[in-house]
Amino acid sequence: MTVTQVPRREVGYANPGADGFWDTIAGEQVPELQWPFCIPIYQRMQTDAQIASVLQAVMAPILRTGWGLDARHCDNEVAVTTSSSLGLRLRGDTERRDFAAQLRGRDRFSWNQHLYEACDFLAQGHSVFNQVARWDDEISKWRLRKLGWRPPATIAKWNIADDGGLISVEQHPRGASIGGVVTPALTATTRTTKIDRLVVYAHGRRGANWRGVSVLRACYKNWLLKDDGNRSWAIGVARNSMGLPVHTASDKGGQAEIDAGLTMASRARAGSNAGLSLANGATFDLLGVKGQLIDPDKFVRYHDEQIARAVLAHFLNLGTQTGSWALGSTFADFFTLSLQAIAEEIRDIATAHIVEDLVDWNFGRNVPAPRVVFDEIGSRRDAQQALDDLRKLAGLEDDEDMATFIRENVPDAA
């Protein structure tokens, strides 16, 4: 292929410039779930006990697993500088793997705090951060002081290039209303942060869709119906626990007695001092509900199950339905794979836009940079940890050395 045949320029576009483009191609037909109207909706959904449990089930293993840096292919100064700045241990190197930056926490970057805030991209679809560095005179290097979180509710506009790349993000001025409600404050100048100062986590991003996709999107319908069902359930309990007050006027009672009876019936309340005074021949009864009522518990439980299924957390439903231990283990394995994929999203973004930027500031763009790594999540983590411990005990450098060791020392392993 000649040079003229090599595709060096992009043809077409990924961003048509229409604000609702990604809502349209994603098939989003619910107006309140189109950005930015979806932001307060997803915040409200997180007050539901089942959704809060689902999010914790997704976030907790990711937050709890061990995170570190793989710097085996890097210069020692690059590895140590990056590790100390991020507070992450070095992995996979027998000489440096136990190194941990035991630094004072004040005025320094906290990986754990950053990871917790980054996981907000699960509920909202995206989580945006602003890089802040400081010069360290002791080592004559730039350190990452913080990644300032920019809550989704503060984002006013995404400026995206034709090829789908992010140019900048604009924030509402302080005090401005959000969710599409136009107020005088929104006419003020927004604050713009360019891409070279940003770290953006976008869950399930495709092309120019830097807003991502919330894991709660698939269960919005179930949450909405469940929320309405719970309200109806509460009204039914309050209404039917005492019975329906019914007043029957006496034969000689006129409209005045009927009106007075209606007032008594509507104001009837149970209590230690409750009582009535009726005209001769009038009656006052508390009638219960006749016939068979729909069981709201089954209705609510069904939607709870669907909410858990939206993130493959089927095992959360095993306490409310029949199921074997083997079935629960199968559910957990699928769930573990989904957590692994989410952690890999975080790993790739953090490596490209945190670690590599830090190396660029201090050593240049052509210097090999460490990679963010994490322990295997769930059932696979124990086996991996055992292999790592065995490798360390035997003084083996990598997986190839481990394979050679097993072939030479374990009968029939070849």
Helix-strand blueprint:
Elements (H helix, E strand, L loop, with lengths): L20 H5 L12 H8 L3 H16 L2 E4 L5 H11 L2 E3 L19 H8 L2 H4 L1 E11 L4 E10 L4 E6 L5 E6 L19 E4 L3 E5 L17 H21 L3 E5 L6 H13 L15 E5 L8 H14 L15 H39 L7 E4 L4 H16 L4 H11 L5
Helix pairs in contact: 3-10, 7-9
Task: Describe the 3D structure.
With 414 residues, the protein is an alpha+beta fold. The protein has three domains: 11-217 and 325-377, no CATH class; 222-314, no CATH class; 380-414, no CATH class. 40% of the residues lie in helices and 15% in strands. The chain has twelve helices and eleven strands. It has helices at residues 21-25, 38-45, 49-64, 76-86, 111-118, 121-124, 220-240, 255-267, 296-309, 325-363, 379-394, 399-409; strands spanning 67-70, 89-91, 126-136, 141-150, 155-160, 166-171, 191-194, 198-202, 244-248, 283-287, 371-374. The protein has a three-stranded mixed beta sheet. A three-stranded antiparallel beta sheet has the order 4-3-8. Strand 3 (126-136) and strand 4 (141-150) form a beta hairpin. Helix 3 packs across helix 10 and helix 7 (220-240) runs antiparallel to helix 9 (296-309). The longest helix has 39 residues, at 325-363. It starts with 20 loop residues before the first helix and ends in a 5-residue tail after the last helix.
